Task: structure prediction
Amino acid sequence: MSLALDAAAQDLLFREAQTANTFTDEPVTDEQVQAIYDLVKYAPTAFNQSPLRLTLVRSEEARQRLVNHAMGANGPKTLSAPLTLVLSVDLDFHEKLPHLFPHAPGIKDTFFAEAAVREVAGTQNATLQAGYLILGIRAAGLAAGPMTGFDFTGIDKEFFGDGTQKSFLVINVGKPGPDAFFPRSPRLAFDEAVATV
Result:
């Protein structure tokens, strides 16, 4: 059985797409970011909770503040990118549920009154949204460089203070630069990763 998505789109989103480690200085515009968001906002989340928040790091001052929390090579990579996104979970996502899930307005208090429950649910669903975001970046003809090698507690204090956002991923975005990609590593075969029960 063939896929509905044509081969060129499959290559763009999956087969030829890789994590970028260097970038050109070509800017990523606000219009591109808006187009990416408008595409990926349709990602599924439980109760349509949509807990992912994006912080666009553009200025040199903000970039340096972010890099202070980077581990190893993630700092230089981040300094070379025209745009860096800090992905975070809004731990008060439930406040928007009456708008996002209007047919069950009481769900905000029924399911999500406790902060610990919101943190687990929000993190799971924001992570799902992050996967779609990477595909959206690729669909825009840009490369993504997602990284977890950061002190996220430090990022939270630096950018969100005592607020309700909790960061979990940093993504560099732009056109790939020279030697942007490492050789592709092996992947598991179908029968190694998929089981039928």
Observations:
- The longest strand covers residues 165-174.
- The first helix runs from residue 7 to 15.
- The two ends are 22 Å apart (CA to CA).
- The chain has nine helices and four strands.
